[in-house]
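Example 3.
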Amino acid sequence: MTAAVEFQNVSRHFGTVRAVDGVDLTIAEGSFFAMLGPSGSGKTTCLRLISGFEKPTGGTIRIFGEDVSSTPPHLRNVNTVFQDYALFPHLNVRDNVAYGLMVKGMGRAARYAKAEEMLALVHLDAYGDRKPAQLSGGQRQRVALARALVNEPRVLLLDEPLGALDLKLREAMQDELKALQKRLGLTFVFVTHDQHEALSMADSLAVFNEGRIAQIGTPQDIYDRPATRFVADFVGSSNVLPPDLTRAMGGPPEWASLRPEATRLAPTGPVRGTVTALRYLGSGTRVVISMGETDVAALVPAGQPVPDEGETTAIAFDQAALHLMGPA
Amino acid sequence: MTTASAILPARGLADHLTAVFWRHPRVLLALLLTPPLLWLGVVYLGSLAALLLQSFYSIDEFSGVVKEEFTLKTYGELLRPSNFDILVRTVTMAALVTLACAILAFPIAYYAARYAKGHWKAAFYLGVMLPLWSSYLVKVYAWKLILAKEGILGWAAERTHTSWIIDGLLSIPGLEGSSLSTSPIGTFAVFVYIWLPYMILPMQAALERVPNSMLEASADLGATRAQTLRTVILPLALPGVIAGSIFTFSLTLGDYIIPQIIGNSANFIGMAVYQLQGTAGNIPLAAAFAVVPIAIMLIYLAIARRMGAFDAL
């Protein structure tokens, strides 16, 4: 099966800044692929390389096996949901959605019929006559989605599309996007800096750091077995243990990650520390224990006794939960 | 713990005044708005009303005295062929100048809004504004020399054996003249030069407000550059174009110096007003002439609004 999108050693430099630096990437057809990373890590540039708004400094980009190096954006069969939605303010919702068909020369009746179909898909049937300014943020987001889908692209690119929405709406849209992607069987490439969003929505994801991919894999892989300290730090609320602490906890002298929910408090243990902070999370309490130079978080499930700040405690865990990783 | 009071002591008049304005927000607004409203209401609109009133008076043809009685006779005089010619000539010139300014200004404004950064942006503003800082009369007379038969343009045409272009232009019926500086073409060129900055600046401001992502969205959806220009950039820049055209159109409608110095001395509205209120002493007819540009601008704005020029605001 050909990959929907393939990067071979792709770079994009702006002067001396290496926004994207030697990225290899394969996105399977029909998958929900997330690009996760802090701002400035190169994830958005990668998305713009796919849509054609950036030209690679080096390397090859293929979309469904075809080299798109010399293909301008308007001839690429991919569409984008922009971060700021970029709806045309002078056109009503129907004309916004029908825009892609209009520039391809489709007649008014046919394109309006198709636009209405797309609006129904995003539950905005009755909003065709409104101007974008008369819609809420969530509704604009749906219009942008309908507009990007109307051309029936082979890959849909989403640039932090949920960033501007409030939490509740964001969660609803996450479910809706995921359902839509399954229903259409389309390849979605989704850029986000929100690790929860990436983990909960993606079939596979790439974690970006300073223009390079730090790790690529399924959400499970990345959460349970982070390849580097950066990934562990960025993706999870995971504890990152320096080599001496790993050894003190019974492992080899290497960097390791340890998830808070895999730990429990114990009266005695090899390493003890002082409780410095408590955070009530509803489903449990996150207890931060200062162990020398490192803070280690443990999750105490609801209903179990929680220590007070300043108390001394130790932690216990299965050795299998200790995941060793590279130093980078 | 300190025992500071919850309310800090007022330090002086400024504190008291700020407190008054906080308790009565409208007081500050009224203080700020009264002088400009008076200026606008009395000096500006008041004089305009007086002008309108004058245009409904007429002049006694024998004594030359203004009869202060309501009549439409003066407006009727506007329709006399010699006067009506002036109106048609002025409006045609203003429309052509506006069109030429819009076409010339667009690439400049587009470059400045989308591509110019840092020093280039400063250079753009300087380049557009600099001509506005020198005297209008100096510029017009400079153009008279440039366009004269022995001027630099004629000289260059002669050297490059392209004089036939100028001669050809000057032989077009209605545009005749012994040189460009005595032809309506010269009047047109100088109008365009003088008013161009007033078109560039609002256009640039409008184009600057079009986010880049909107152009990308258009290309992303399959539009060519020409389609993006027609369906996204121009509609969104239209309020700026209209704002600029209000300047170029109304300034051309009212100007009386350029057509006096450059061109074939055919009368324009401004010149007619100047002569009527001065030597001829026919204030009512001068007022009626002056009402014409106002009426035209109101009609123009109504049409622009009807066409949706302000929908993107």
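Residues 46 and 257 of chain B are 26 Å apart (CA to CA). The first strand of chain B starts at residue 58 and ends at 59.
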